[in-house]
Write a structure and sequence with these properties.
The structure is a homodimer. The first copy, chain A, is 37% helix and 17% strand. Chain A is an alpha/beta fold. The radius of gyration of chain A is 28 Å and the shape is flat. At the A-B interface, α5, α8, α10, α11 and α16 of A face α5, α8, α10, α11 and α16 of B.
Chain lengths: 526, 526
């Protein structure tokens, strides 16, 4: 399980480290040496005495004591390596990059099992095998690139797929998203998504911990553990977004083995996420967009002021927000008139606030001031500002950076001219900003985040279910069908505190209406 | 209306042209001079004799005869300028960039009306006012940047919003999308989206015309004309995608003046697009994605082979396709086994075809060969290939370029590592390729394109409606409700050729079931 040797090792050996940075063993060593890692680094490579300036031992037996081992050698050699390290070298953290284990065949699975057994026996931690490694604020133990900018308030990211992780990091970096840690857990032989969540939960410090967690998951093997720690983190003020992929195949399998839609694993995932207050995402772009939104202060209400120099995107954002139950309220009154008088003729402040293609940074400042101080109905601002190709917009982007830092209401910047004002955008990102390239993707994602149900309280009141009364109603149904009125009055009473079933001491939700009536034959159902 | 002087002028004057390329008059002159334009260029600028190397006249009266005028001066001076050009200089094409017309106030609208009157009186063409101009293969008459790569088989793009147009061009250029023409029609005082469609339709040449049309529209003022030319173009083999924005506000207005959902303008737009076979898009990113899909051969069936070196994105693409009614059929049999034998151990060919992070360009070639020649059930291939950050992938992207050019089935490339293998992607785009950055956006958009209904045939058969019989059925309903059986047998007969209502000679669709039964009160409806 996750320990200090894994998180912040004082010494690291790369077994299979080489000068060839096109291979995992070479790339992970380069990344380690270029990272904030300040401890001792060693290499095991039978053919070299020095690798990338680091002392190389020909065998693992020759190594000194070492906290953490990153292993990039063929699967068949891993067991021996782990054995020597665990038993003789005091190694308590293992990152096995190598493939060829349980994902490949039965022999691989057996090998994997033996490795876990050894590591468990010494109280060690294992990431992998078949993974791309991990990145913490203390060191880079992954072979992937690009390496994201580290920030203690950045994203904690756990992924079941290393390639997916790096593709999301690549996407996020372009948008200015920072990362605090990245765990690509591979086969999750010992540490999986659930265990990393457990660690985040149990080590959570309201002062120093990052509050943003992203997950890419293909299977949730321990739903209770997952729910426990995810919802605990959300209750502590964290915000979690996750992709759970494989819905279509899972749906197909479910259909062949179950009958009811409620039994579909994908619906179960939805329910699990809803209970935990997790924003479920559909793909990399949406996950990166949610991460960007998470890096801004939380919206306190659903009303957005759309501020723009370009009408079309503002109309599209209005559609995206209001079609998704967000508000774009009309702005009027003396304060609105006062603002209008500070803008060029032809501008509009009714929301969208359109200050025209010729609008200046100074005018944008007036608009943001008014939204922040004068328009109480506004909860957040979306500023769409690209370029039709006339003049540089450095001053506008600088003003946006400054207002984002000093404002109370969130200001979401949408920058559509990635190609043309690229330098301005890069400068904005270097100053620590996060931007969104497409207003419609932003708008519908903001709505999704805003409307994600709050996490279920720890002591959620349970509905009272009178099983005997329900059974009686069902038994009274002569032909297997029940009229709606019979069901509603059957045995269900509104939620009340302290009421629970006592079977096994476990609280149970009894979903409404799960009365076993037949639904074939076209008869009306309750 | 659109004429040769607008499309391919032998001489162009920029009225208000200057050396200041940060202003429209300077920027449009620079763009014109850098474009393929080979004719005479003039400037009118009272303060200069030479502007950007071009002879400048102090007044419009001093100009020689000139085909086309691009006007970038204050609105109040435009009428006189147009008058002199139209009556004395033989000018028959006008592009008015200036704002301050009907979009601003009543006086502006009056000015605009007078300008149109003059231009109409000499049979001239007018783009604008309040627009960013137009770009054809002959010349660049727009002030916006970046300027897209021109290609006779590229996209024809008509936009009611200049800023939106350039943002979409910027996005599209990054993905490798080429353009044949861009019309930003501004206030559409004379030439609007409908007129440009009319021109595309009437000038369509199966040999030379581009077959891809993109539209950004905020209002459809002439739906009959729009439908006529859009559907005619689609019947001629064109593919059209469009954003019609303002759906939410329009929906709101509709709700206050109408009662039924069928009366909603947004539903009317949907119906119009469906009849014309137009792919309706939700935002810039989706429109650019559809444009990218349009640049590939049309899918002949819905079955896709997903080819990847990264499992996660392949799972997400499988979800996106199969959740949207596309097929990701299982691939098996001797040919599949033969293919598997050519890949590294641990690869999978069942679809997704996963040839692992270590997969080579040669192996990708084997896979594409098999999909093209051996797997008859496959209609197209999606290749997801990024980089976990190890080695360059120039060879893989070059192979994809070559196969796209020479294959019969479409190959859609999804490149997730925009930051890390940027150079490879740029090279791919320079070779003429179009790629997609996100597999989920690609997958759901491909499904949308594939499932867009075909254009309605020119002589679509009409259903027969026996109004008298229907009236009789309704009159027989004692309490205002009708049972489903009564409605179905009432007066509706299946579609048949040559059957139409004769009222006014206009064909009319009679929507099914629009029997005025009440729907309040919770009673079951048909």
């Amino acid at each position: 399980m996750i320990n200090q040797q894994l998180l912040n090792p004082s010494s690291v050996v790369v077994v299979g480290g080489s000068d060839d940075v096109y291979k995992p063993g070479g790339a992970v060593l380069r990344n380690l040496l270029e990272s904030p890692f300040k401890g001792e680094a060693y290499v095991v490579n039978p053919k070299a005495d020095m690798v990338q300036g680091v002392k190389s031992y020909h065998t693992v037996e020759e190594l000194p004591q070492v906290d953490c081992a990153i292993i990039a050698i063929a699967a068949k050699f891993c067991l021996h390596t782990v054995e020597v390290l665990a038993r003789e070298k005091g190694t308590r953290a293992f990152v096995i990059l190598s493939a060829g284990f349980s994902e490949e065949n039965h022999e691989g699975a057996e090998l994997e099992r033996k490795i876990v057994e050894i590591i468990d026996s010494v109280g060690g931690a294992l990431i992998g095998p078949n993974c791309t490694g991990l990145l913490t604020t203390h060191y880079n133990g992954s072979f992937t690139s690009p390496v994201p900018q580290l920030d203690p308030k950045g994203v904690d990211f756990v992924s079941g797929s290393g390639a997916t992780a790096i593709f999301i990091v690549d996407n996020g970096m372009r948008k200015g998203i920072k990362f605090n840690s990245v765990y690509a857990v591979g086969n999750s032989a010992q540490i999986g998504v659930e265990e990393v969540l457990e660690y985040y939960d149990e080590s959570f410090d309201p002062e120093t911990s990052s509050r943003i967690k992203l997950l890419y998951i293909e299977s949730i093997n321990k739903p209770d553990k997952f729910l426990k720690h995810a919802s605990s983190l959300v209750r502590k003020g964290c915000r979690i977004a996750a992709i759970k992929s494989g819905s279509s195949e899972a749906g197909g399998r479910a259909a062949s083995s179950h009958t009811g839609a409620l039994a579909s694993p994908d619906i179960a995932v939805d329910a699990l996420f809803r209970k935990a207050g997790i924003v479920r995402c559909n793909g990399r772009e949406e996950l990166a967009t949610v991460a960007g939104i998470f890096m801004y202060p939380e919206l306190k209400g659903k009303n957005i002021a759309i501020i723009t120099h370009a009408g079309g995107p503002a109309v599209m954002l209005t559609d995206a927000l209001s079609n998704n139950n967000m508000g774009v309220p009309h702005i009027e009154g003396p304060k609105a008139d006062e603002l209008l008088s500070k803008l060029f003729g032809g501008s509009a402040v009714g929301n969208p606030i359109d200050f025209l293609a010729t609008g200046t940074a100074e005018q944008l400042g007036f608009i943001l001031d008014a939204c922040e101080n004068d328009f109480d109905e506004i909860d957040g601002m979306a500023v769409i500002f690209g370029s039709p190709g006339l003049f540089p917009v450095f001053d506008v982007y600088e003003l946006i950076s400054e207002r984002i830092k000093n404002g109370k209401k969130p200001i979401f910047p949408i920058f559509p001219s990635y190609g043309w004002v690229k330098k301005e955008i890069e400068e904005f990102v270097e100053r620590g900003g996060v931007y969104f390239p497409d207003e419609v993707i932003f708008g519908s994602t903001l709505a999704k985040v805003y409307h994600t149900p709050a996490v279920q309280p720890e002591d959620a009141p349970m509905p009272c279910v009178d099983v005997a009364a329900i059974r009686e109603v069902i038994n009274a149904a002569s032909d297997g069908y029940l009229a709606p009125a019979q069901i509603h009055n059957g045995g269900y009473r509104p939620r009340q505190r302290g009421c629970r079933l006592r079977r096994g001491g476990v609280r149970r939700y009894s979903p409404r209406h799960r009365v076993p009536t037949r639904d074939e034959g076209g008869r009306p159902r309750a």
